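Is this the right way to post structure tokens for a design question? Let me know if I should format differently. Anyway, here goes:
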């Protein structure tokens, strides 16, 4: 089992920045890929970014490319999402996820474990 705990969400003005963290515990040695998804009110959950747990592979949704940066600290078993130039449409609950498969994926069913999520609200 893997447990994931997100933190770092909050209220920020448009154009501002936030950094989300996701601390993994449990069978972290088996993790091969981690990612971030988000769900806005009244909308389906959508892919944000993914990163291989070893090596440099990353993937971003077009809507966040150039504004968000996904990174990891293997020693701390922690995944980060640096969000810059935030827009109103970035408002959502952001959830961290982990997979035991090597391939990066934008599909929810690729990921076996999910955190509870952290709220990000961008105001005008």
């Amino acid at each position: 089992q893997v447990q994931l705990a997100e933190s770092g969400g909050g209220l920020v003005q448009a154009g501002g920045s936030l950094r989300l963290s996701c601390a993994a515990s449990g069978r972290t040695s088996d993790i091969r890929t981690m990612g971030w998804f988000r769900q806005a009110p009244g909308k389906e959950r959508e892919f944000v970014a993914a990163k291989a747990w070893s090596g440099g592979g990353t993937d971003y949704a077009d809507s966040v490319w150039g504004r968000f940066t996904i990174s990891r600290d293997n020693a701390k078993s922690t995944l980060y999402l640096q969000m810059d130039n935030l827009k109103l449409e970035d408002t959502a609950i952001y959830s961290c996820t982990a997979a035991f498969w090597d391939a990066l994926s934008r599909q929810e069913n690729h990921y076996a474990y999910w955190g509870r999520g952290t709220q990000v609200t961008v105001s005008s």
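Format looks fine. Someone answered above. Worth noting: The chain has a mean pLDDT of 95. Residues 43 and 124 are 20 Å apart (CA to CA).
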